């Protein structure tokens, strides 16, 4: 379970699984906005205040803000499903 004020893991997984080619423009913008908002929340929330599940989720989604693609994005790219790395 994600921490309060953070994007749920289910929402992240759903957005990551659906191929970019099948997303509407609204979905693309929504995913980008939610991702940026969640990344900012990750940055602002001290590691010491994050639950264990949130720390794992942040590591999986690459919310360490080091401009590295997430594991999910790397997998999508490897399968030819990831149109962009943002």
TrEMBL record:
Compositional bias ranges of the Polar residues kind: 1-11, 39-75
Region (Disordered): 1-86
UniProt-listed Pfam families: HSP9_HSP12
Bias (Basic and acidic residues) ranges: 19-37
InterPro entries: HSP9_HSP12
Protein name: Heat shock protein 9/12
